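hey can u check if this looks right to u? its 59 residues, i copy pasted from the old doc so theres a chance i mangled smth
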Amino acid sequence: MTSPEIDEDYFYQRAETELELAQKATHPAAVRAHYIIANHYLDRVYSQPADGAVIEAAE
């Protein structure tokens, strides 16, 4: 199992990579796709609780 800090670093780096790819892409659909993927990675970075606790979905 990985620590939340490692996951956060990984997701942040992936978001940065996707943003770079979006800036280099020439086709509008590719630009959009890279921004969408970057947004998903940033959601993972900034939606994690500070204490690393996992939030369970209600049944």
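Residues 4-24 form the longest helix (21 residues).
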